[in-house]
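The material for today's practical consists of a large collection of protein records. There is nothing in a record beyond a sequence line and a structure line. Backbone structure tokens are a discrete shorthand for how the chain folds in space. Nothing more is needed to start thinking about how sequence determines fold. As an example, a complete record with its sequence and its structure tokens follows.
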Amino acid sequence: MPELPEVETTRRGIERHVTGRRVTSVIVREPRLRWPVPGDLAERLTGRTLGRVLRRAKYLLIEVDTGLLLLHLGMSGSLRVVTPDAPLRKHDHIDLCLDSGRCLRLHDPRRFGAVLWIESPAQQHPLLAELGPEPLGKDFDADYLYRSTRKRRVAIKQHIMNSHVVVGVGNIYASEALFLAGIRPGRAAGRLTRAECARLVETIRQVLGEAIAQGGTTLRDFVREDGSHGYFQQHLRVYGRTGLACIACETPVKQIVQGNRSSYYCPACQR
């Protein structure tokens, strides 16, 4: 599933092709995504000039003078910048054709993605209103994480993967950040000290920053706007390394299941 680094990579990739461009046409080949594509989407967008491309959690928001276009990549979606005559692939559902002669094309095999229109302030939209702070933003700091963990018995890995606590810390990145912080994924969140929370905030920022710089983590479906793949998978320190030697101490990496998701940790380095 595309996570925050993959979505941020997509945002940065498409922004230079989208911002300041006028929409010449909208082609909806398949409106049945996670939620129905608005029937008047073409009417709302055609002739309009697009503004900034923003990201909130794993949602992309494209500014239009009359509202916002919200996009979500779902489980296996991707956005590519293509020429209008680029061969169609199965599951190429939507094209936004621009006055540059290029199209922004949504590819979504599982149709769990979304293309929606927002007129009210974005922060009031039901999909965005209850989200926690951005992990790379100033509101996510040691004091905030420490306060959010008090008296919480939930495992710290599940706590930081809760989008109401902080957005965008997916399974891979949570495992990697906890390894760097020296914290076991099964530790009760309420048992972390303030110093451990401060360290974890920094390692979350580090891991997400590294992943964005590498263009995301390609495990199955994710590709960038030009069709190329992310490479952070080549730099994973603990995720998916069950039984292999820890890169820090050579103790075999262990795997456990938390909330139906695999977690990986070093029993010597993480406590």
Observations:
- The beta strands are 23-28, 50-56, 59-64, 67-72, 78-82, 92-98, 103-107, 114-118, 254-258, 261-265.
- Residues 218-231 have pLDDT under 50 and may be disordered.
